[in-house]
Design brief:
This protein is mainly beta. It has a five-stranded parallel beta sheet with strand order 5-6-7-8-9, with no helix packed on it. The protein has a two-stranded parallel ribbon with strand order 1-2. Strand 1, helix 1 and strand 2 form a beta-alpha-beta unit.
Length: about 170
């Protein structure tokens, strides 16, 4: 244990999880010098950072999480093949990259999604992001299994589908 560590500070950065031997000790002695969203865990690899409360609440409603705390247990989402988080006012899908078994993602009608990172979702066959007003970017070059893409009413300027050789439907 690090009982000899007298001072720990992680304020002012983007640190989400700190792996420690003793969570209680860390919370009692170091939490006041950490950002609000920094947590201590015995294994940060088991946690997926989900900063958008609406996205995490949707995962709670679907039974994949239990506490609104910016984290989802990775074991709860590893085998999810279909996810519908449409109409939830989500603006940030950070954490979606951990849903590696996902084949069908409906994130439509969220009205304001930022950049969407789905490059790790190599099993994705159906993607619906209609009416999301995506202002950032979307990279689907790694989604070779993609068969259907519904992306109408968005605000991105270009969409490269040259790597999507299985694409049968594009809206």
């Amino acid at each position: 244990m690090l009982e000899s560590l007298l001072f720990f500070s992680s304020k002012g950065n983007n640190l989400h999880c700190v792996s420690v031997f003793d969570v209680d000790f860390a919370n009692q002695n170091w939490k006041t010098n950490s950002d609000e969203n920094t947590i201590f865990s015995t294994n940060c690899d088991d946690l997926v950072y989900v900063p958008d409360n609406n996205f995490e609440q949707a995962l709670i409603d679907l039974g994949y999480d239990t506490v609104l705390d910016d984290y989802v247990n990775k074991q709860n989402i590893l085998n999810v093949t279909s996810l519908d988080v449409s109409n939830k006012q989500i603006t940030d899908l950070t954490g979606i990259e951990a849903f590696t078994a996902l084949e069908n993602l409906n994130a439509s009608n969220n009205n304001g999604l930022d950049d969407l990172n789905i490059t790790t979702l190599t099993n994705l066959k159906i993607l619906n992001i209609e009416n999301d007003l995506i202002l950032g970017t979307i990279d689907i070059s790694k989604n070779a299994a993609l068969e259907e893409l519904y992306a109408g009413t968005n605000d991105f300027k270009s969409l490269d589908v040259t790597q999507n050789i299985n694409l049968k439907k594009l809206d």
